[in-house]
Amino acid sequence: MFNDMLRHRLPEFQYFLNDIAVHEGNGTIPGLVNAMLDRLDGAQRPFHVKSQYDLVERILSDGFYATFHLRWLQYFNRKQLLVIDGTEFLEKPWLALEKIQDFLKIKKLITRKNFVLSKEGLQCFRERVKDSEHWCVGGDKGRTLDKKFDMDVGFALDTLFGPMDRYFAEKVLRREKFNWNFGSSI
């Protein structure tokens, strides 16, 4: 059902973003990112839409990381922000947590040994290494780890977010692009 909703709405949303890029962003990705920041600050579409029809648009607008990062830079300097790759956090959370502990300059109390693999293939945290009790990322908070996008939807999402994600990674974070595939098998 969500694949069908995305399949229906993505072309319209892509057209909307292209229009913003051309008319508000000087036809460039940096211009689009800044135009989206202006829209975020002004609570304009695609941010802060209220109708049920715009649910997909609200979900998609959460993916404009470069825009949100620029917003945070209005309040914090670059050295005060740490960006963690969510895919790495799901697959190898101890690596992401090591970066966080280093960033915060705190003792490394959470390591690889604090994680066990669940039968579903998820990394689960256990507070003490010898404990059998552990906590896994679950289906609450709207997570859908057991669902995948259809290949055409994954490709459309990559087309939509790819240019802004590359800009975010290379120009804003000054690192290699993220290895995201939007949950599809592309």
UniProtKB/TrEMBL annotation:
Name this protein carries in UniProt? Sulfotransferase
UniProt keyword Transferase present:
yes
Q: Which organism is it from?
A: Oikopleura dioica (Tunicate)
Q: What is the lineage of its organism?
A: Eukaryota, Metazoa, Chordata, Tunicata, Appendicularia
**Which PANTHER family does the protein's record reference?**
HEPARAN SULFATE 3-O SULFOTRANSFERASE-B, ISOFORM A, HEPARAN SULFATE SULFOTRANSFERASE
Q: Name one GO molecular function term.
A: [heparan sulfate]-glucosamine 3-sulfotransferase activity
Intrachain S-S bonds:
C124-C136
Q: Does the keyword Disulfide bond apply?
A: yes
Q: Which UniProt keywords are listed?
A: Disulfide bond, Transferase
Q: Which InterPro entries match?
A: NST/OST, P-loop_NTPase
